[in-house]
Design a protein that fits this description.
Blueprint: E1 3-10, H1 14-28, E2 32-39, H2 52-79, H3 88-91, E3 110-115, E4 127-132, E5 151-154, E6 192-195, E7 212-213, H4 219-228, E8 231-234, H5 241-247, E9 251-254, E10 276-277, H6 281-303, H7 305-320
Parallel strand pairs: 1-2, 1-3, 3-4, 4-5, 6-7, 6-8, 8-9, 9-10
């Protein structure tokens, strides 16, 4: 049995949910896996690259905040009443309640998993995995953002950094809230909704003031918007929410960046059913034709989680030993 600590923001965004899904899969594989949380805030003031004492001081303050939030969330879960959105990460738990690591250092036998948005090694781990859930932004900061001994693993081939992961190690784990995202059969769909998320910095992003944008909503709110809207338009080209919108019966269009097409974002093995890339008649027809295949394709990917994690454990054994 190996020990894992998975670093994550307290959030209901796609990346944090996937990190929690990995923790659940590792536990089910008989490993000692725990989450290490920090606050999801913008601008992010987490002192990732600070000295150990400064990070410990940050975490002590956050830990006090975290315990207060968990007490309040427990109350809302118990009473079933309405609650503020800030409690959503403590209440919406698609992977269930997970064990939490609460120290600011780890022993030499522990493997720490950092997502691609986190530079440095603030837990001072001897064994480090960097899971690239998106494009890695710190490749030009060796020694400070990452160490030569770190193991890089891509979520998908498109996110890989060949210089850091020349072997192309991959691990694809998904969390599909099947009961939340379903077409409720509402008769009167109206208007468009939008997904921005990772597309926020795009030069071709139009003004969307006053538009219905799902960013920051709770999962139940997002599912309701998808069921009420006629069409979903996404400027994030790499989000599972486009497929979830399609499952709710919303015509879903990913807006490619200028000069790009579906082939620039999805490989031949990456069949994304039910979603159009652009609004050409051919893409819209493809989305309508393949929509009946979408739910089953996601469920099949979820069934492969166990094999993905088995391969990851074998890779850790090879790299870090017993």
């Amino acid at each position: 049995m190996k020990k894992f600590v998975i670093c994550d923001f307290r959030s209901t965004q796609g990346g944090p949910i996937v990190l929690e899904a990995l923790c659940r899969q590792l536990i089910e594989a008989g490993q000692d896996a725990r989450m290490f949380y920090f606050r999801d805030e913008y601008p992010r003031s987490v002192p990732f690259l600070s000295e150990p004492a400064a990070f410990a001081a940050y975490y002590q303050a956050f830990h006090t905040f975290e315990r207060r939030m968990m007490r309040r969330a427990a109350y809302w879960r118990r009473t079933g009443g309405r609650y503020a959105k800030k409690y959503q990460p403590y209440i919406y738990r698609p992977s269930g309640d997970l064990p939490v690591y609460e120290e600011t250092t780890v022993d030499d036998d522990t493997i720490v998993i950092y997502p691609e948005v986190v530079p440095g090694n603030f837990l001072q781990a001897k064994h480090v995995v960097r899971w690239l859930l998106y494009h890695y932004q710190f490749e030009n900061a060796p020694g400070r953002a990452y160490a030569p001994s770190d193991l890089f693993v891509a979520y998908r081939k498109i996110y890989n950094s060949p210089n850091l992961n020349p072997e192309g190690h991959e691990m694809h784990v998904i969390c599909f809230p099947d009961k939340v995202y379903r077409d409720k059969g509402y008769a009167d769909r109206q208007g468009d909704c939008y997904i921005i998320r990772k597309g926020r910095g795009r030069s071709d992003l139009p003004p969307l003031d006053g538009k219905l944008i799902i960013d920051g909503m709770t999962e139940t709110e997002i599912a309701e918007v998808f069921n009420r809207s006629r069409r979903c338009i996404s400027y994030d080209t790499q989000t599972m929410y486009t497929m979830l919108a399609a499952l709710c019966g919303c015509e879903t269009i990913v807006v490619p960046e200028p000069g790009k097409t579906r082939a620039d974002y999805r490989g031949a093995e990456d069949k994304e059913y039910g979603v159009a890339f652009g609004d050409s008649p051919e893409e819209l027809a493809y989305a309508r034709k393949t929509l009946p295949l979408l739910r089953q394709s996601i469920l099949e990917k979820q069934e492969k989680n166990r094999k993905q994690v088995e391969g990851f454990l074998a890779l850790c054994e090879k790299r870090f030993g017993a």
